[in-house]
Amino acid sequence: MNAKNKLAYQAIQAISRQIHGAQAIILRYLGISRQAYHQWQHHEETAWEQQEATLKQKISQVFQEHRQRIGAGKMYHYLTHDETLNFYISGKRVKRLMSNLHLKCQSRLKRRQPTKQAEQELRDNILNQQFDLATKPNQIWLSDSTEVRYGINGEHKLRLCGVLDLYGRYLLAYKLSVTETSEAMMDTFKQAFDVTGDVHPMVHTDRGSAFTAKAFGKLMSEHQVLRSMSRPGTPYDNAPIERWWNEFKLNWMESHPIPKTKAELIALIEEGIHYFNYVDRTTQRNGSTAVEYRSEAA
Fold first, then answer.
1. Which residues of 230-259 are buried (b: 16+ CB within 10 A; e: fewer)?
2. Averaged over 168-183, what is the pLDDT?
3. Which whole number is the average pLDDT over 226-235?
């Protein structure tokens, strides 16, 4: 039975309960036989139909739990990791049911064009968009910052600095500051080194003043890292962390009410980073979370 006929039968059933004699009139108008209608009334759900009903309920639940910010690909991973579902689920099936339920993920924010910064210590673009070079944790780190807001009307602005491990897109460290300064970025990297221990990754950044400062370069030399920088006006050279920020802001920050105070902002950011490190599942990680992906490599 197709969805159109099922909806028609359900409508007939609902109306005929309220209006005496309506059933016969509607059946005649729609050209549906009494026999077909009565067969539907006494129809028992098949195992497939029961699965469909269960999946629709689960999909709606998961979609709401993730603030209506996930598409069919991520939905598939969440459902296949749900231990309460004991039947086979395909990606096409999930996509079809999400379409039937009219559930659609919001699109990513448009990328902002970066402003030119004063250049001091520059490095070559060694990474050169080879984002598949990372085969284990702490081989390649990316760093950048993004703007976040709080206040009654979002009138207060801060910079959220971060260090992202390219392997599994795991955010190692973060810090809030008034502006993107070399001190703020250095503090963020110190946190990252404290968490990971004695590692010497390639560190890729843009050419912002925070990363071209001599003090920042000195810190990198102390930890014996290999430096790499994006080319001027080429944000795609640092695409993974740009995308991480975009998804963080669109799928987390903008799906919650704007924080009224700095304390609320900090709490929301901490919850969001925990979500993307420990809860969010992606196809790029074979359906694993970032922390699971790192553990599998250990």
1. beeeeeebbebbbebbbbbbbbbbeeeebb
2. 94
3. 92
pLDDT tens digits, 40-90: 666 677 888 789 889 999 999 998 898 888 889 999 999 999 999 999 999
Cα gap 293→197, rounded to integer Å: 19
Q: pTM for this structure?
A: 0.73
CA distances from 204 to 119, 208, 233, 239 (A): 16, 12, 15, 11
CA angle 238, 243, 246 (to 5 degrees): 130
Q: Which of 55-69, 106-120, 160-174 has the highest mean pLDDT?
A: 160-174
**Secondary structure string (H, E, C) spanning the chain:** CCHHHHHHHHHHHHHHHHCCCHHHHHHHHHCCCHHHHHHHHCCCCCHHHHHHHHHHHHHHHHHHHCCCCCCHHHHHHHHHCCCCCCCCCCHHHHHHHHHHCCCCCCCCCCCCCCCCCCCCCCCCCCCCCCCCCCCCCCCEEEEEEEEEEECCCCCEEEEEEEEEECCCCEEEEEEEECCCCHHHHHHHHHHHHHHHCCCCCEEEECCCHHHHCHHHHHHHHHCCCEEEECCCCCHHHHHHHHHHHHHHHHHCHHHCCCCCCHHHHHHHHHHHHHHHHHCCCCHHHCCCCHHHHHHHHC
